[in-house]
Amino acid sequence: TQLLEQSPQFLSIQEGENLTVYCNSSSVFSSLQWYRQEPGEGPVLLVTVVTGGEVKKLKRLTFQFGDARKDSSLHITAAQPGDTGLYLCAGDTNAGKSTFGDGTTLTVKP
Amino acid sequence: DAGVIQSPRHEVTEMGQEVTLRCKPISGHDYLFWYRQTMMRGLELLIYFNNNVPIDDSGMPEDRFSAKMPNASFSTLKIQPSEPRDSAVYFCASSLPTRSETQYFGPGTRLLVL
User: Most CB atoms within 10 A, among A13, A22, A35, B103?
Assistant: First the structure.
């Protein structure tokens, strides 16, 4: 069973600060996804990274896939209250199903 | 296009009762996944289907849980009999045949078993 560990588990910051959350595994993934989940809703896909070393930017969010395709990071610049939520990473092994991490709960205070 | 539709959104029942959760995937999506989310265990995959066929049900907790997908536009997850430890949010997700890793989640069913 592939295990995805996310850190930190909880993060509370002030509006305007930068932050990075991590997703680590000892297993290699063919691709990795980042989702954001808001209270009372299902997870919503933010990005998929496929190539080792790949960097993708989505406005103030920067996603990086590790060279060995075992880990990933999500960096948010100038966080806003609207960024508050649970951030989940999920790894795909080409077996048709994904393994989800336990998530990082982010709170951005105005 | 409507996203993944789940019903009911909330369910409160008593221990021992049968519970049926329903899901309509996005049209054209060949993969359908059922997840359970709790504070203690996070998001757990229960079972997933490809072209209406169950592929992996290793995440189903026990025989009290069963899932069916009679056609491409409908799936059910049934718990019989329900127990308080089954209380959780149950999500259904679907994905395209060529991008099974890109999943679109429904809004979830919040189940409370008293």
Answer: B103
What pLDDT, in 10s, does the model give residues A66-81?
999 999 999 999 999 9
Q: Is the pLDDT of residue B100 over 90?
A: no
pLDDT tens, B38-72? 988 889 999 999 999 999 998 998 899 999 999 99
**H/E element, B94:** strand B88-95
Q: Give the Cα separation of B105 and A76 in Å (integer).
A: 23
DSSP letter, residue B97: T
Report DSSP letters for chain A, one per residue: ----EEE-SEEEEETT--EEEEEE-SS--SEEEEEEE-TTS--EEEEEE-STT-EEEETTEEEEE-TTSSEEEEEESS--GGG-EEEEEEEE-SSS-EEE---EEEEEE-
Q: Which residues of B touch A30 (CB under 8 A)?
A: 101
Instruction: Tell me whether the omega of the peptide bond preceding residue B84 falls within 30 degrees of 0, making it cis.
Output: no
Q: Which residues, at least 6 apart from B103, have a Cβ–Cβ distance to it below 8 Å? A: A33, A45, A90, A98, B31, B33, B93, B94, B95
Q: Which residue has the tokens 């709170």?
A: A107
Q: For residue B26, give the DSSP letter.
A: P
The alpha carbon of residue B104 is apart from the nearest alpha carbon of chain A, in Å, by 7
